Amino acid sequence: MIVFPNCKINLGLHILEKRPDGFHNIETIFYPIPFFEALEAVKAPDGISSFSSSGLPVSPDGKPNICLQAYDILKNEYKIPGVKIHLHKKIPAGAGLGGGSADAAFTLSLLNEIFSLNISKEKLHGFAGRLGSDCAFFLENKPMHARGRGEILTPLQISLNGFFLVLVIPPIHVSTAEAYADIRPKTPSVPLREAIRKPVEEWEQFLKNDFEETVFIKYPEIQKIKSQLYREGALYASMSGSGSAVFAIFKEAPAPGLKSLFTNCFFKVF
Questions:
Q1: Which CATH number fits domain 164-269: 3.30.70.890, 3.30.457.10, 3.40.630.30, 3.10.20.10?
Q2: CA proximity to 31, closest of 173, 137, 179
Q3: Which label site among 139, 145, 173, 246 has the fewest CB atoms less than 10 Å from its CB?
Q4: What pLDDT does 61 receive?
């Protein structure tokens, strides 16, 4: 069985406070976008589980692949037999797009279906939370206001239909730990649920990603991409998550020559 994990962008991101457990409470808006990978899982005839991949590298931090981590959670809970998993990776790690979290969430859902486990949505959310702060979002895969570590989700009625979305991913890996290292939590002047109600043309004034303050200092190339997108007519541009991907929303189709401005970057228009 094959599924197609997608990624997300963050329409604003506030880092509110440091928690006693070492994590941070945040406020953000997750918005799914149609940039896909391919994930296949089948029952292993010999009962021995395996993982293979193609496309971009997976697990650059050296940790066990997150798809196998998802499998291990269900194996320990439900004693499921072996599976063979193959991932064709297209969403770069360290880009702030949640590609790994999407892979984990889709693996949980896929194995739930293959083995007819009938796991409730609430329990799947609990498993997802053990794999990543934004993992549970991909079980819903619709616009969400997120709080806590990113796992407390409230649906939002928001749509970017009719706009053009440009995604630029420079060849820079920004780890989440690195992005948080110099962050100073603060209370936003305008909460995101209020700011997002403004017209897209006003988002530049009201939507902020707190990670930009520190990530741009270390990686000025990312800030240059955002500035260039505004110069080319974007209504709103922002780094996604902890970076390095930058997205921009355009009212009209971007000029054909826009891609040529971002050499050595992945560039896509949705």
A1: 3.30.70.890
A2: 137
A3: 173
A4: 58
Alpha carbon distances (Å) from 1 to 61, 68, 87, 213: 28, 16, 12, 42
Q: What is the helix (H) or strand (E) element at residue 36, kind and residue range?
A: strand 24-36
Q: Domain 2-155 maps to which CATH number in 1.10.443.10, 3.40.50.1260, 3.30.230.10, 3.90.226.10?
A: 3.30.230.10
Residues identified as active-site:
8, 134
Q: Where are the domain boundaries for CATH 3.30.70.890 in the chain?
A: 164-269
Is the full-model pTM beyond 0.90? yes
User: b or e along 90-122 (b: 16 or more beta carbons within 10 Å of the residue's beta carbon)?
Assistant: bbbbbbbbbbbbbbbbbbbbbbbeebebebeee
pLDDT tens-digit map of 139-172: 999 999 999 999 999 999 999 999 999 999 999 9
Residues 137/146, Cβ–Cβ less than 8 Å: yes
pLDDT digits (tens, 9 = 90+) for 215-230: 999 999 999 999 999 9
